[in-house]
Amino acid sequence: MFHSILKLKTLLTALIAIPLFFASCSDTDKGNSSTSEAAAASSATPNTSDQKELKDAPDFTLTNINGKSFTLSEHEGKVVVLNIWATWCSPCRKEIPDFVEMQKNMKDKGVLFVGVSVDKEGWEVIRPFAKEYSINYPIVLDDGTVYQKYGPLRGIPTTFIINKKGKVEYVATGMVTKKLLQPVLQKLAAR
């Protein structure tokens, strides 16, 4: 009986770990749904350490989908959800509809979603994707700047939640959902 319980616990642990394995993509995974070991070991739950002093969000200026400059520091005073993603990443595709909905519902509360695409094919793949998904928040194309300043990243999607003072308050590696993200954003927007 003891061995049966042990086998059941092992099976349950494996079943719980499987979704985490598929929760994020790495650059080498383009076109499939597997992930790197580092990404698989991560959790998609926002993490923060109240014991540590929060770090400044590294500033950057990149071109947005309309060809204009987007500078992160110009949005201080807002809660910024900085999402690093790619069009070929399955978990990225799954979280975007939640982001679109939350941007619509929370923009008047001072919340701004920003998509940082790491697509090597550039605007050629990003523009039709943004149109198909009705993305209603700024999208910029990373030239390596964000990846370098915010890395090393375990995989994508990776989401940084920046408070109104420009400090990185939470980091989530892997797909995040409205259920996980909205309470965090409401708390930060109310501060």
Structure characteristics:
6-stranded mixed β-sheet; disordered N terminus; alpha/beta; two-stranded antiparallel ribbon; 37% helix; 6 helices; single chain; 191 residues; Glutaredoxin; globular
List the SSEs and their pairings.
Blueprint: H1 2-21, H2 37-40, E1 55-56, E2 61-63, E3 69-71, E4 79-85, H3 90-106, E5 111-117, H4 123-132, E6 139-141, H5 145-150, E7 158-162, E8 167-173, H6 178-190
Parallel strand pairs: 4-5, 5-6
Antiparallel strand pairs: 1-8, 2-3, 4-7, 7-8
What does this structure look like?
The protein has one domain (2-190): Glutaredoxin, CATH 3.40.30.10. The chain contains six helices and eight strands. The chain has helices at residues 2-21, 37-40, 90-106, 123-132, 145-150, 178-190, and strands at residues 55-56, 61-63, 69-71, 79-85, 111-117, 139-141, 158-162, 167-173. A six-stranded mixed β-sheet has the order 1-8-7-4-5-6, with helices on one face. A hairpin with a 5-residue loop joins β2 (61-63) and β3. The radius of gyration is 17 Å and the shape is globular. The termini are far apart.
